[in-house]
């Protein structure tokens, strides 16, 4: 989406807080910026498994976006006017039940 261009990666290398590879190891394209604390923070990253993950198309994202805030608020049991108010900058820990609820919502039409 044009609104997200500022979040895109230049030269296909992460330029933000993407310090984990698809396999869950340290991302060499982080340039060593977080390597000194990698072992401490690695356990907080979620790495999707191809057979158990879901990639949404741009159309699906646009369709789901209006209900995302209320859905994540209900699932996490928190309130806020923006997703970051609910999830927080340090992330959120979802239980297995919450993961299933979120996936069920994502799969719903």
What does this structure look like?
The protein is globular, with a radius of gyration of 16 Å. The chain folds into two domains: 1-48, no CATH class; 54-109, no CATH class. Helix content is 37%, strand content 0%. The model has no long low-confidence stretch (mean pLDDT 77). Helix 2 (58-76) packs antiparallel against helix 4. It has helices at 38-41, 58-76, 83-87, 96-107. It is mainly alpha-helical and 109 residues long.
Name the descriptors.
109 residues; globular; single chain; 2 domains; mainly alpha
Question: What's the number of structural domains?
Answer: 2
- What's the β-strand tally? 0
Name the overall outline. Answer: globular
In DSSP terms (H or I, runs of 4 or more residues), the helix count works out at 4
Distance, first to last CA = 21 Å
Topology of this structure?
Layout: H1 38-41, H2 58-76, H3 83-87, H4 96-107
Helix pairs in contact: 2-4
Brief digest:
The chain has helices at 38-41, 58-76, 83-87, 96-107. The chain has 109 residues and is an all-alpha fold.
């Amino acid at each position: 989406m044009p609104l997200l261009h500022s979040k895109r990666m230049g030269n296909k290398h992460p330029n933000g807080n993407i310090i984990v590879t698809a396999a869950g190891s340290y991302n060499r394209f982080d340039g060593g910026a977080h390597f000194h604390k990698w072992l401490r923070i690695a356990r907080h990253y979620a790495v999707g498994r191809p057979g158990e993950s879901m990639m949404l198309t741009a159309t699906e994202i646009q369709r789901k976006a209006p209900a995302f805030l209320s859905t994540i608020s209900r699932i996490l049991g928190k309130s806020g006017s923006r997703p970051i108010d609910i999830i927080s900058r340090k992330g959120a820990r979802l239980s297995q039940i919450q993961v299933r609820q979120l996936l069920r919502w994502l799969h719903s039409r």
